[in-house]
Amino acid sequence: SSSRPTTANLQNMEGAFSILPAKAAAVSVPSPIVASSSSCPSTIPARSRVSAGQQARSVAFLATPFFGTKGWRRFSESAPKAAADFGIFAKKEYSDLDPDGIEQDSVGSLTITDFAATRQQVSDDVCKQIADLAAKAIAEKGVFNVAFAAGTHFPLVAKGLVSDEWKDKMQFEKWRIFFASERFVPKTDPDNNFTRKQDLLFKLVKIPMSQIFPVDVTLTPELAARKYEQTLKEQLPLVDGFPQLDLALLGIGDDGHTAGLFPMHPVLNETRHVTAAIKDCPMGPKIRITMTLPMLNNAKTVIFVTTGLKKKDLVANIIMGDDPFETIPAKAVLPKSGDLFWFVDRDAASIIDRDTVNYSGVVRANERPRRRARPTSAQLAAEVDRIKKMNTMDPDNLEVRSAKSLSVTHIADTTTDLADYLSEFVCKCATEAIEKRGVFNIAMLSGSHFPVLVAGLTSEKWKAKMNFSKWHVWFASERCVTPDNIDSNYWVANNFLLKFVGIPQGQVHPIDVSVPPQQAAEKYETLLRSSKFLLEDGVPRLDLALLGIGDDGHTAGLFSLHPILNERKKLVAALEDAPSGPKKRVTMTLPMLNNSRHVAFITSGLKKRDLVQNIVEGDDPFDSLPAKLVVPKDGDLDWFMDKSAAALVTPAFSF
């Protein structure tokens, strides 16, 4: 992108641009200082609040190339030269401010759109902006006062700050560091914000420790909040009665929270204090210290950074939506006399594209991007053949293979249709296996997808066609609970499917959970390796693995960022630290699942739409979404989903 416009540039520009509607947010008027959330009033009279959006000089959303070069060209041709020079898409001159208008008015905010195609480009753009802000602040007063919040955005920013390209341009020795929020845990705890920043940044650059001001977590939460507020007042210049930061660098949580400001929490109504203690956080450590909206909205500049498909709905809601700021606190961060920037990568901005933004920069709410037409069956078949002919990958080298190998997406209008599609697929796989090898080896597990499977396989239409007497049933994972526990995959499969379809008991192979997990894993691997009807070239090979996905992207017992994802030798492994549900589990590993002839994922419901799109089309790391790593090395991958789960997916191939 071209150089960023300054606030002066923006203020001096003539009007003639359209307005991006944004929900008004409450900010404080100057008054005294600190409180815990229990003392925050539940409501604040309208006359004591002022619309932050109406006071904002400039608000910028910095995003990725959903317009493309054609979009830029058309805008440049139709907008004033100033817009082409500065990359500015919308502007509003503010006058006649109505301090009572927060309840009624939608506010216009200056919008600047800057494009970055990759996470690396986002990092570079953020660093350039920070370097410019630091240089300006240091030239004016000799120091740069910045506050950091915790979150997934910070490693991306820190990576850029410590890089050779930017490290020497930041003048770190002049920085003074504050914390927009702190989890109330000891500094030895990895959840501590100070500790995380120290490992990612402070140890790698020359910021004197005397210029870093952490929250004192050895005190009670209330005392820690009071003490930190006093620190802020002593160390920062006061503007309108509140301490003023040069920069607040923030991220957004999946629920729209930022810093320690959570949806519907009374602390959002705080108008007097610049820090607050919170004892009932809905996620993570319950107790936190946070800067309040009066503090954040008094900053000269606020920068939000967020990336990934997981955040696209949230970003679109913040930029275009009408949800109240109480439900999405990040909306309430609107500097009353400063600049707001959003740095968003292509995935996070994917809902806001050429179809939702016109060339004067006005976002048309409640519109969705057009989707590519679904390919025909003939097109799909042709693409299958083409890709298979191209496939020269080394099947043993998981690290160098794309997790987007050939996949076919089946989308049903209803769950009844979904059950029918899936049953037809299973019947085809079973018939093929029985004709060639005399048996059908299938691995399954319970989950939210399982009722769809049961509904199809037990229906009169399909039950008689399945030849269940030739089936051998295996379990992709098992929770280490007693076999009569409803958390047991075997219990669910047996009570809802197996006992109704006539599979001989000796052909159902549960995992033995009567022994410790490690021993159970070893026994199950031995059983797999010794089953002659399962072997191909001496290695166990399933005809079909039927899998689901958890809300966090896990499948079977393969969880995000778990060391078990690196297992390359064992076919079955034990884990004793599952992050959800029963801690102890036994699971087939990636080498076992990826040796299957067919793998099918089944999912349904709106709740899974972001996750499904991220897995099928997104760029998030494989180890953060283990379902991405299930890629048959010499087989086929199919996705079965209803139209709700597929709402954001282009039905096509990924490879």
Q: What's the gyration radius in Å?
A: 28 Å
Number of strands: 29
Largest sheet: 6 strands, parallel
Average pLDDT score: 74
Percent of residues in beta strands? 15-25%
- Helix/strand-derived category reads alpha/beta
Structure description:
This protein is α/β, with parallel strands linked by helices and 655 residues long. Helix content is 28%, strand content 17%. It has 18 helices and 29 strands. It has a six-stranded parallel β-sheet. Strands 19-29-28-25-20-21 form a six-stranded parallel β-sheet, covered by helices on one side. α10 (312-320) links the parallel β17 (301-306) and β18 (339-344). α5 packs across α6, α12 (415-437) crosses α13 (450-457) and α13 (450-457) runs parallel beside α15 (489-501). It is elongated, with a radius of gyration of 28 Å.
Throw out a few tags for this protein.
655 residues, alpha/beta, six-stranded parallel beta sheet, 18 helices, 28% helix, elongated, disordered N terminus
Record the SSE blueprint.
Elements: H1 7-12, E1 20-23, E2 26-27, E3 35-36, E4 50-51, H2 52-55, E5 58-62, H3 68-78, H4 81-86, E6 88-90, E7 106-109, E8 111-112, H5 119-141, E9 144-148, H6 153-161, E10 175-179, E11 181-183, H7 193-200, H8 221-235, E12 238-239, E13 242-243, E14 247-250, E15 275-278, E16 288-291, H9 293-296, E17 301-306, H10 312-320, E18 339-344, H11 377-390, E19 407-412, H12 415-437, E20 440-444, H13 450-457, H14 460-463, E21 471-475, E22 477-479, H15 489-501, H16 517-530, E23 535-536, E24 539-540, E25 544-547, E26 572-575, E27 585-588, H17 590-593, E28 598-603, H18 609-617, E29 636-642
Parallel strand pairs: 3-15, 5-18, 9-10, 9-14, 14-17, 17-18, 19-29, 20-21, 20-25, 25-28, 28-29
Antiparallel strand pairs: 1-7, 2-4, 6-8, 11-16, 12-13, 15-16, 22-27, 23-24, 26-27
